[in-house]
UniProtKB/TrEMBL annotation:
Chief place of localization: membrane
Keyword set, alphabetical order: Ion channel, Ion transport, Membrane, Transmembrane, Transmembrane helix, Transport
Similarity comment text for this entry: Belongs to the aromatic acid exporter (TC 2.A.85) family.
InterPro entries: ALMT (IPR020966)
Any Pfam family: ALMT
Protein name listed in UniProt: (rape) hypothetical protein
An example Gene Ontology biological process: monoatomic ion transmembrane transport
Location within or outside the cell: Membrane
Organism whose genome encodes this protein: Brassica napus
Membrane protein topology class: Multi-pass membrane protein
Region (Disordered): 460-479
Length: 479
C-alpha cells in the first residue's frame, strides 16, 4: 500500500494480485449521499419532464402555426379590453362594470371567424332580448302589488323552461345553443336581481354596453388580424378528402392484383394511402360543425355571403358512401381463401381500368374544388368510367369455371386435362368486382352533388371549355 499527496489531497492506492494498482476512494458521508440522490432525482424527474414537455409544446406550434396565432390574438384582445378597466375616464363611462367586457372576450373569442361571430351575435342578441323581457317582467310585477314575488317566480320558470327546451331542437341547437344559455342567465339575473336593485334600467344598460365593447373588439381582431375562416377550412377539407379517396381506391386495387416486393418505407407509405378512406368516414362531425359556423361569416375570398355551405354537408355524405365501399373493398385483401391466379388475371385488367377511371374523377373533383371552376373534361371522365363498368360487367359474365390440371396427374396426354372450379374460390374476387361497380355508381352521385354546388356557388367556367373548337372530342352518345 502506498500513498502520495497531490494538490493538497491525500490519495491511497493498493496493489492487487495481477500486479496493478487500484485507487481507494473514501466513502461519502450521509449528507453528501442525500445531496447526490436529490440532485439525481431533480435531474431525472423534474428537468427531463420539463424538457419533454417543452419539446411537445414546441412541436404542437410547429405543426399548426394557426394555434399560435390564435393565442396571440386572444392576448391582444384581452390587452385592449383591459384598457377600459385601467383608464379612469373609460372606467367611469361604463359604470364600473368593465370586468364584464373582459369576461365577454374570454368566453366568446374562438379560433376561427365563424365561431367568434356566432358567439358574439348570440351573446348580444340574447342579452338584449333577455334584458328587455326582464325589465318588462319587473314592471308587471311592481304593478301587481302583493303578487310581485309570484309573478317573478312564474316568469323565471316559464322562460327558463322554454329556452331550455329549445336547446333540444336540432336546427336551433346547431346555431343558437349558446344564445339560449346566455338568455337564461341574463333573464334570471335581471328579473330576480331587480327585486333588490332600484336602478334596474341603468344596470341593464351598463351590462349591454360592456358586452358590446367586448364583442366589438373580438370581431375586429378576429377579422382583420390573420383571420382563420371556417368556410375555407371546410372547403380544403372536402378537397383533401377527394384526394384521399382516390389514393385509397387505387391502392386497394393495385395491392390486390399486383403483389410485389417493396421497401419498408414504400410499404408504410402505401398503407397510409390505403387507410385514407378512414379520414373521410371520421369527418362527418367536423364538416357539419364547420358548415354551421361558416354561415355566420361575412363574404371572403371566393365565397359570397350566402354561399351554399350546407351543400358541402351533402357532398361529404356522398363521399362517405364511397368510403364505406372502400372499407369493404380493403377487407377483400384479408380473405383467407386464395383466389387462383387465372381468375385474378381474368379480372385484373378490367378492375384496374375501372379503378383508374374512378380515381381520375375523384381527383378531377378535388381540382374543381381547389380552383372553384367547372371542369371541362368531367363528361369525358364519367363516360370512360361508365364504359369501364360495362366492360367489367361483360368480364363478369365470362368468368372461367375450369382450369387446367397438372400434367403429372393425367396419365394420358390426349385426355382433356380439366377440373371444375368451386364457387368458394371465385367468390372473393366477385365481391371485389361488385364493390367496384357499386362504388362507380356512388361516385356518379358525388359528381352530381359537386355539380349542384358549382351551380349554386356560380363556379367559373373552365377556360378550356370556352375554346369552342370544332375538333374538340365529344363523348359518344350511349344508346
Amino acid at each position: 500500500m502506498a500513498t502520495k499527496e497531490e494538490a493538497g489531497k491525500l490519495e491511497w492506492t493498493i496493489s492487487v494480485d495481477n500486479g496493478t494498482t487500484e485507487r481507494l476512494v473514501p466513502k461519502s458521508g450521509l449528507s453528501e449521499r442525500i445531496f447526490l440522490w436529490l440532485n439525481g432525482l431533480v435531474m431525472k424527474v423534474i428537468v427531463e419532464r420539463i424538457a419533454k414537455f417543452m419539446k411537445k409544446t414546441w412541436r404542437i406550434g410547429a405543426d399548426d402555426p394557426a394555434k399560435v396565432v390564435h393565442c396571440l390574438k386572444v392576448g391582444l384582445a384581452l390587452s385592449l379590453v383591459s384598457i377600459f378597466y385601467y383608464m379612469r375616464p373609460l372606467y367611469d363611462g361604463v359604470g364600473g362594470n368593465a370586468m364584464w367586457a373582459i369576461m365577454t372576450v374570454v368566453v366568446v373569442f374562438e379560433s376561427n371567424v365563424g365561431a367568434t361571430f356566432s358567439k358574439c351575435v348570440n351573446r348580444v342578441v340574447a342579452t338584449i332580448l333577455a334584458g328587455s323581457l326582464g325589465i318588462f317582467v319587473h314592471w308587471v310585477a311592481i304593478q301587481s302589488g302583493k303578487a310581485e314575488i309570484f309573478v317573478i317566480g312564474c316568469s323565471v320558470f316559464l322562460f327558463a323552461f322554454a329556452a331550455t327546451y329549445s336547446r333540444f331542437v336540432p336546427s336551433f341547437k346547431a346555431r343558437f345553443d349558446y344564445g339560449a344559455i346566455i338568455f337564461i342567465l341574463t333573464f334570471s339575473l335581471v328579473s330576480v336581481g331587480g327585486y333588490r336593485v332600484d336602478k334596474l334600467v341603468d344596470m341593464a344598460q351598463q351590462r349591454i354596453s360592456t358586452i358590446a365593447i367586448g364583442t366589438s373588439i373580438c370581431i375586429i381582431i378576429t377579422v382583420f388580424f390573420c383571420p382563420i375562416w371556417a368556410g375555407s377550412q371546410l372547403h380544403r377539407l372536402v378537397q383533401r378528402n377527394f384526394s384521399k379517396l382516390a389514393d385509397s381506391l387505387d391502392g386497394c386495387v393495385e395491392e390486390y392484383f399486383k403483389k410485389k416486393d417493396v421497401s419498408e418505407n414504400e410499404d408504410e407509405e402505401t398503407n397510409m394511402k390505403l387507410q385514407g378512406f378512414k379520414c373521410v368516414l371520421n369527418s362527418k362531425g367536423t364538416e357539419e360543425s364547420m358548415a354551421n359556423l361558416a354561415r355566420w361569416e361575412p363574404a371572403h375570398g371566393s365565397f359570397n355571403f350566402r354561399h351554399p355551405w350546407q351543400q358541402y354537408v351533402k357532398i361529404g355524405a356522398a363521399m362517405r358512401r364511397c368510403a364505406y365501399c372502400l372499407e369493404n373493398l380493403s377487407s377483400c385483401m384479408n380473405y383467407e381463401t386464395e383466389v387462383p391466379d387465372q381468375v385474378k388475371k381474368h379480372f385484373g385488367e378490367a378492375c384496374v381500368k375501372l379503378s383508374s377511371a374512378s380515381s381520375k374523377i375523384l381527383r378531377e373533383l378535388a381540382d374543381m374544388m381547389n380552383n372553384t371552376r367547372i371542369s371541362s373534361k368531367m363528361d369525358f371522365l364519367v363516360f370512360d368510367m361508365n364504359s369501364a363498368v360495362q366492360e367489367l360487367q361483360e368480364t363478369l359474365k365470362t368468368v372461367p369455371v375450369k382450369t387446367n390440371k397438372p400434367e403429372q396427374e393425367v396419365p394420358n396426354n390426349k385426355e382433356d386435362r380439366t377440373m371444375s372450379m368451386s364457387l368458394h374460390e371465385v367468390l372473393p374476387v366477385a365481391t371485389l368486382v361488385s364493390l367496384l361497380i357499386e362504388n362507380a355508381a356512388r361516385i356518379q352521385t358525388t359528381v352530381d352533388a359537386v355539380d349542384e354546388l358549382a351551380n349554386l356557388a356560380d363556379f367559373k367556367q373552365d377556360s378550356k371549355k370556352k375554346m369552342g373548337d370544332n375538333n374538340a372530342r365529344q363523348p359518344p352518345q350511349s344508346s
